[in-house]
Amino acid sequence: MGSQVIAIGLVMGAGIATFVMSTGLIDSLGETRRLYYEEFRFGDVFVDVKRAPEGLARRLAEIPGVRRVETRVTVGATLDVPGMREPATGLLVSLPEGRQPELNGLYLRAGRLVEPYRENEVVIGDAFAEAQELGPGDRISALISGHRRELEIVGVAISPEFVYAVPPGALFPDNKRFAVMWMGRDALEAAHDMDGAFNDAVLSLMPGASEPDVIEAVDALSRRFGGQGAYGREDHTSDMFLRSELDQLAVMAIVLPVIFLVVASFLLHTVLSRLISLDREEIGTLKALGLTDREVAWHYAKFAAAIAALAAVTGISAGAWFGHAMAGMYAEFYRFPALHYELAPWVLATSLSLAFGIALLGALQAIRRVMRLRPAEAMRPEPQPVYRPLLLERLGVAQALSPAARMILRHLERRWRRSILTCLGIATALGTLIASSFFLDTIDFMLDVQFNRAEREDVALALIEPQSLRALDDIRHMPGVMRAEPYRAVPVKLRLENRTRRLAVLGMRPGGDLHRALDRRQHPVSLPPDGILLSDMLARLLGARPGDVLTVEVLEGRRPVRQVRVTGIAEQYVGTAAYMDMDALNRLILEGPSISGAWLKVDGAAAGTFYDAVKRTPAIAGLSIRAAAISGFNETLAENLIRMTLTNIAFASIIAFGVVYNSARISVSERGRELASMRVLGFTRGEISAILLGELAILVLFALPLGMVIGYGIAAVVVESLQTELFKLPLVLKPATYGWTALVVVGAATVSALVVRRRLDRLDLVAVLKTRE
Amino acid sequence: MDQQSRQTAFRVKGLTKVYDMGEIQVRALRGVDIDLYEGEFVVLLGPSGSGKSTLVNILGGLDSPSEGHVFFRGEDLTLVGDKNLTLYRRNHVGFVFQFYNLIPSLTARENVALVTEISPDPLTPEEALTLVGLGERINHFPAQLSGGEQQRVAIARAVAKRPDVLLCDEPTGALDITTGVVVLDALERVNRELGTLTVVITHNAAIRHLADRVIYFADGRISRIDLNEQRMKPSEVSW
Ligand SMILES: Nc1ncnc2c1ncn2[C@@H]1O[C@H](COP(=O)(O)OP(=O)(O)OP(=O)(O)O)[C@@H](O)[C@H]1O
Ligand SMILES: [Mg+2]
Hints:
The complex is a heterodimer. Chain A is an alpha+beta fold. Chain A contains 20 helices and 20 strands. Chain A has helices spanning 2-39, 54-61, 126-132, 185-191, 211-222, 237-288, 293-333, 345-372, 375-379, 391-394, 403-414, 416-454, 470-476, 536-542, 582-588, 607-616, 626-680, 685-721, 735-760, 765-770; strands spanning 45-53, 66-72, 74-80, 88-95, 107-111, 121-125, 139-144, 147-158, 178-184, 197-205, 231-232, 459-467, 481-496, 499-508, 532-535, 549-554, 561-570, 578-581, 595-602, 620-625. A six-stranded mixed barrel of chain A has the order 3-4-9-6-8-7. Chain A is elongated. Chain A starts with a helix and ends with a helix. The chains are: A alpha+beta, B alpha/beta. The A-B interface holds A 383-389, 402-404, 406-407, 410-411, 414, 673-674, 677-685, 687, 765-766, 768-773 and B 53, 57, 60, 62-63, 83, 86-91, 93, 95, 97, 99, 101-107, 110-111, 113-115, 117-118, 141-144, 157, 169. The complex binds adenosine-5'-triphosphate and magnesium ion. Adenosine-5'-triphosphate is lined by residues 19, 21, 26, 28, 46, 48-54 of chain B.
């Protein structure tokens, strides 16, 4: 029994552990975020403008419900990092001279803030500082609005608006090639030709203020100054990622613990039922001797309580340990002053009640049986089990079965409820494994679509300002450029009825080969000569279907408001997008031919000289390098995904092992006598093992397809619950994943079966013959 | 029949069996020497704890002695090892126990078929069951049979492989007299028709009349051996 207590304790413990880990993380992450946002005054509403005078700030502050306004200058820059050939992208944010900003404050990790009016001093983000091993005293060269600047790093900091900092347009952090930097307002104004003006405002709201009303008022006021449309935290990239992480954890905090605890409760039920059958006569005797029902029941309740205690202790400590490890992992992505995994008292209390509650649930039926058993009835041996021919045999098939096969099948059929539940238990193990591994396939698929089918350019080059088509020739003549396809990106607000979305419409040339919109089967969609193509997530958010006419509020240049017909939907897993023919887009915004940048194919051998040229070209705002994005992903997210998957393999194996081990032990207990009799009749150890293992093999065999269905189902639920504007996760499960997960489960089952098989070698043949069944 | 002209099946030499119980040692057999012949019907009698079951279990290859040797047709069973003991049981020995030890999930026929499938030259299950007078009930499960019927299925299962030796440990111990007679009839018939050496342990002294030889046990030793001039049929014995 000892080992069975451990097996069940482990399954239950795994449930408690996942609960403790994810609930604790939600708690810690949520609380850390709240405190950080509060202490460092994270804004509520954000708006970018082209160029606005400080006077606008005063009028923004007068909007009812607005508490504070912080204006800033933000500028993109190309950085030349010592020791790195390709340019890095910098996002420079201005700091008020000599003080912390009122909103989006900085938490200094090292060094100090910029001294007033020191135009060469910067504070850099800690992710970049870590990745490049830079710190106070180091220097870095930047190309800001066409001016080269030698900057001195004086501090390393983080800010609540960059908890999750990704390069513009990217999804995963690229800490080596993307830097957030803070610089004195004066210096940045000068560099960006913004004297006495700003291009970025952050607002905080009074408690109870209406965010939509404020956003509307901000839009109305900022329109004149090239306002790009205000948005709340809801649409703030950093917070959006953080929220989607918390949502994901919330799913994990429910799905996995429920699965583990239900399985554990079932295991406990079967073990106790068996134990009580074995102890039947003893129970009768004890009751006849005057022990009360309660006293006898307590004996078995103690068994359940021991398991609960074991599960609580191992589960809580393992959960806390995993929680710490995960918090450490999160700290790499989410930049907080400190992210500690804290085991809140309520999590502890809930875990304990879960453990004991589930144990009680599993033990309830068995204990009720003990209490109901009358002494006289109990002291009589249990009646011989009644078997029937198999359903299959009664139907006239299965005549050719050997007696051994019949033994296996009839036993399974007689205990059909337990057989089904055991089968379900094993299937659940497989399901859990599949459901926690599908992410690898899905991400793989998304990366493949993203980088091999949709965005195939080596480099996406962005210009600071839209330029005439002549710029394309200049780009084509840069060293190493083998192919260049221009694009035009125009910030707009799309509206259908009362639903609006802000984004940049991408104008492309038809027939382009590097950057393409795809259909459902990942084939390129041809661009309509006019009309707009929406990504499916965007179409969903706008409630738009092909044929609908959208209102397009252009947010730059002459800011016309136009109508455009939706001509198609493109399948896109990452972010939202809208595509148009480039000429049609330029016509729509009432401008002549112009480009915002180009997608390039670059000769690998000449990449170095190409990067050097980029660093010297003031008109270039920045590059996104495909290879860098992929390697950035592999270095960060992929590694963690693999670590998570390994953890899940361990958990799923615990279920598989626990269920199979338990089932095998009960089988041995129930059939020990028959198997010993068979040994007496001259059957070999191998032959009787085959009966035990055959029974398990059948259960596993049925469990595999069932588990695959369960796994697919759980994955589908998880995917559905994780759909965000950032990712439209496709549910991708490769055959290989079904294969290896099934192997893990079969492996765990085999190990536990073999462990139990060794008991058969110790069957005492002579002892069996001396006793009645 | 002349004892000397018969072939020896078992030759038991200086057999002792000591159960080591830590503090105390139980000497279940204290030096047993006996020859058992092909085809004879032997009854073992003796007080409880005198070592009868211990001897039979060793003869059947279920247990091994502490000292001494058991030769079966010249082969020393104490030297052949576990694998070969299994094969020995499979091919040569039939067992019948007080508790029938049938497989509850198999019908009478299937319980017998279980053994016939692994034997080189078996009776058919139907033949074996007919031999014990159970031709009708072959598709019943053990739970649907009376104790005597179950015991006869056990005998059918034991003899279906045409064993060379049939070892029975209190085969009627759990049965009333009438049922016991039916079971003994079956044993007697198997011994007569198949010529199987049959060893029966019993506490019922009346059964000694069925035997060619009666071996008395006391305190781990053979105390006496009686020869019966005339074997009786179970129906002739006064119970
Ligand atoms: N596994 C065992 N461990 C310890 N002692 C044992 C074991 N099996 C038998 N004995 C002891 O060996 C002695 C002989 O036992 P055995 O079963 O051979 O007696 P028996 O003659 O068959 O008695 P009965 O007529 O009651 O069946 C007894 O004293 C018994 O207690
Ligand atoms: Mg005995």
